[in-house]
TrEMBL record:
Origin organism lineage: Bacteria, Pseudomonadati, Pseudomonadota, Alphaproteobacteria, Hyphomicrobiales
Antitoxin Xre/MbcA/ParS-like toxin-binding domain sequence ranges: 58-110
Organism of derivation: Rhizobium alvei
Lineage top rank: taxon: Bacteria
Protein's name in the database: MbcA/ParS/Xre antitoxin family protein
Residues annotated as domain Antitoxin Xre-like helix-turn-helix: 2-53
A Pfam family: Xre_MbcA_ParS_C
């Protein structure tokens, strides 16, 4: 899952700092994991990865063209008070990732 998330972060055009926030880890640890592969990951880290990949899957189901989904992450959205989904997720809490995922699941009818 970690390698898939790393590839997704590249497609979302995230900085290492942003990716580290999404995974709730120090930037230095993220860079080490990115270069060497992940070490031990706790329950919270696994939940974060699961939600991130769930967001990606939902976007792939909603948008036929993958790039539209990648762009959606950065687009302002009325459902998030005019913020982008990325801004919401960068709040840093697991619940922020879950909020975006729940929204997308509702949009695609996946409750």
């Amino acid at each position: 899952m970690f390698r898939a998330a790393i590839n997704l972060f590249r497609l979302w055009d995230l900085t290492d700092e942003q990716a580290a926030i999404l995974l709730d880890m120090p930037v230095r640890s993220f860079r080490r994991w990115k270069a060497e592969g992940p070490g031990r990951m706790g329950r919270d880290g696994k939940a974060r990865l699961s939600n991130i990949l769930g967001i990606h899957k939902a976007l792939r189901l909603i948008f036929r063209e993958a790039q539209r989904g990648y762009d959606w992450v950065r687009a302002n959205n009325a459902a998030f008070g005019g913020q982008s989904a990325l801004n919401v997720m960068l709040g840093g809490e697991l619940s922020d990732l879950m909020r975006v995922r729940r929204y997308l699941d509702a949009v695609r009818g996946g409750w």
